[in-house]
From TrEMBL:
Protein name: Rqc2 homolog RqcH
Keywords noted in UniProt: Protein biosynthesis, RNA-binding, rRNA-binding, tRNA-binding
Pfam family, one: NFACT_N
Purpose: Key component of the ribosome quality control system (RQC), a ribosome-associated complex that mediates the extraction of incompletely synthesized nascent chains from stalled ribosomes and their subsequent degradation. RqcH recruits Ala-charged tRNA, and with RqcP directs the elongation of stalled nascent chains on 50S ribosomal subunits, leading to non-templated C-terminal alanine extensions (Ala tail). The Ala tail promotes nascent chain degradation. May add between 1 and at least 8 Ala residues. Binds to stalled 50S ribosomal subunits.
Length: 623
């Protein structure tokens, strides 16, 4: 996630080819530290988003517009006054610094040609957008930095602009082999760290990548490299910098996820004949229908890194590279995806904690109840002792510690422990009292255990729904369910109830049948008892929490392939999605019944078919 000098270089290269030479037609400031330029060039227009946010500085071309405040901020008004229709003369990057400079030409109030400079510094929390005269005098900036805030440089109107050099670093685009060797010899640190500590614009991940390309251990100390290793490292470094200077970029995003199913489909696709080479139109059509799509649904994988150059250091079956034609697409896609994952995790974290705490309490309660229930198993023994004492007690003379007699229920001899201070009648009564107490305990515990187990099943189903949730809207119904069952404090009557926008997943089978998958218990209930009709098919992972999967049969017999695809979805959207195989029950909806008084989505069925499915989502969602 490094917005480093190489990424900036790729951005400058892209902006030169798109907006350099164009004219600014619109300037907006949607956020406090964000600008949105609309630039017209060669009869086309595009938008340039620039954010100087301390937490997420960004700059990229986008097609998305943003709503602006009714009253434009002062900085935006100043830019509109000076460069509202300015021509972009040049876009450049000093060295490999994380800085983009845009040179602009415009007409002043007198009609004279003037030039200005817009400088964008992408330096983490120190990011800024600075508007200067041609001579470098600052006119204004989106963030004002006074001497009290920074002792290095003031960023205020009237002050001269300069690039702060707080750390002396070498320019990787111009460094010689001798300078490179000297820098490595003086670095008492690992090689990967030395690369980004000694050279401008190099990020930690690029440092690791250079070491990986040079077949060196990034943790090896830089000052301990031998001459051969150092020469090899420099040449690897130089090749990468040459690509940067020549504009040979390959924007990409590294994703982490389970790609095994996709790989199988891709291998299958490669092994089948190409329909385009067939002379027979009917055969070509049949081959095209059989040939699986090698497209992967990237929304299900998590973006972990992006770069303007290939990152070969991310290897292994869990990582895959997605290439893009532009670095702007990379940045927009990466941060949109990353924000989605981060936001969902943050939003669901509290709900997960509530569910997990409730589950742990119920697990402990259930174990204790099971233990107590096991203790009641000896109640029948006390009843038999009482009856045997009533039968054979006449043989006792008093003071005995046990009675040895024949158990007429089993035909075996039994020894009954006695209290020598009590009569046979009193001992018998004592055993019956123990029996009745344990019987009452058993009856109460038997009901409590069933209730606790039902609560555990309910909470586990909610936990499974949280695993499925991909959007904030999916969490709204889950929170509503937790409120309804008392796990989350209910909203006040004056609070507005949130709008439910989440809908079940909708897929279409290879044979054209609509398949619906519930994302939570409420949706499972709705799918099974409101959307599905009697002859539709119902699928669910056997013996574990998961989604209800409905296949609309359209009054037809389903082909085997549709059964397999629906079962794979039921396995995938269940607690067993990480398993190699999952047993799935399936039955016509008319055989599925609602459990009276049970939580939403809990059903019973007495006759069903079963099949073993590999958890997978091979179908594209229908929107």
């Amino acid at each position: 996630m490094a917005f480093d000098g190489i990424t900036i270089a790729n951005l400058v290269h892209e902006l030169k080819n798109t907006i350099e030479g164009g004219r600014i037609s619109k300037i907006a400031q949607p956020e406090k530290d964000e600008l949105l330029f609309t630039v017209k060039n060669y009869r086309s227009s595009c938008r340039l988003l620039i954010s100087a946010s301390a937490s997420l500085p960004l700059i990229y071309l986008t097609e998305t517009n943003k709503q602006s405040p009714l009253t434009a901020p002062n900085f935006c008004m100043l830019l509109r006054k000076h460069i509202g229709s300015a021509k972009i003369l040049e876009i450049s990057q000093p060295g490999l610094e994380r800085i983009i400079e845009i040179k602009l030409e415009h007409l002043d109030e007198m009609g004279d040609v003037c030039r200005k400079r817009l400088i964008i510094e992408m330096m983490g929390k120190h990011s800024n957008i600075i508007f200067c005269r041609e001579d470098g005098t600052i006119l204004d900036s989106i963030k004002h930095i006074s001497a009290q805030v920074s002792s290095v440089r003031e960023v205020l109107p009237g002050r001269p602009y300069f690039i702060p050099h707080t750390v002396e670093k070498l320019d990787p685009l111009t460094v010689t082999e001798e300078e490179f060797a000297a820098a490595m010899k003086s670095a008492s640190m690992p090689v990967s760290k030395a690369l980004y500590q000694k050279f401008t614009g190099i990020s930690p991940v690029i440092g690791e990548e250079i070491c990986h390309l040079a077949s060196l251990d990034g943790d090896q100390w830089a000052n301990q490299l031998n001459d051969l290793e150092q020469i090899h490292l420099y040449h690897t470094f130089s090749v990468l910098m040459e690509d940067v200077k020549e504009g040979r970029f390959q924007p990409n995003i590294i994703y982490e996820g389970d790609f095994s199913e996709w790989e199988e489909e891709t291998d299958t696709a490669k092994s089948l004949p190409d329909p385009e080479i067939s002379d027979d139109p009917e055969l070509a059509e049949a081959l095209a229908a059989e040939k699986p799509s090698a497209q992967y649904d990237w929304s299900e994988a998590e973006p972990v890194e992006f770069a303007a150059v290939p990152l070969t250091c991310f290897s292994g079956s869990r990582y895959r590279v997605r290439s893009f034609s532009s670095i702007s697409q990379v940045l927009e896609t990466y941060y949109a995806s990353r924000n989605t994952f981060t936001r969902i995790r943050q939003k669901s974290a509290d709900l997960r904690r509530i569910v997990q705490n409730a589950l742990e309490r119920n697990y402990k309660k259930y174990d204790l109840q099971e233990k107590q229930l096991k203790d009641t198993e000896k109640r029948e023994k006390y009843r038999v002792y009482g009856e045997l004492l009533n039968t054979y007690g006449y043989e006792l003379k008093g003071g005995e510690k046990e009675l040895v007699c024949m158990n007429y229920y089993t035909g075996k001899e039994v020894r009954i422990p006695l209290d020598p201070q009590m009569t046979a009648q009193e001992n018998s009564q004592r055993f019956f009292e123990k029996y009745n107490k344990l019987k009452r305990t058993y009856e109460a515990l038997n009901q409590l255990t069933l209730e606790t187990k039902a609560e555990i099943d309910h909470l586990e189903s909610i936990s499974a729904a949280l695993d499925i949730a991909l959007q904030e809207a999916d969490l709204v119904q889950i929170k509503e369910e937790l409120m309804e069952y008392g796990y989350v404090k209910k909203r006040r009557s004056s609070d507005k109830k949130p709008k439910i926008t989440s809908r079940p997943f909708h897929y279409r089978s290879s044979d054209g049948f609509d398949i619906y998958v519930g994302k939570n218990n409420y949706q499972n209930e709705e799918l099974t008892f409101k959307i599905a009709s009697g002859n539709d098919w119902w699928f669910h992972a056997k013996g574990m929490p998961g989604s209800h999967v409905i296949v609309k049969s359209q009054g037809k017999d389903l082909p085997d392939r549709t059964f397999e695809e629906a079962a794979a979805l039921a396995a995938y959207y269940s607690k067993g999605r990480e398993n190699d195989k999952v047993e799935v029950d399936y039955v016509q909806k008319k055989a599925v019944k609602k459990v009276a008084g049970a939580a939403p989505g809990f059903v019973i069925y007495h006759t069903n078919y079963s099949m073993v499915a590999i958890p997978a989502c091979r179908l594209e969602e229908v929107h």
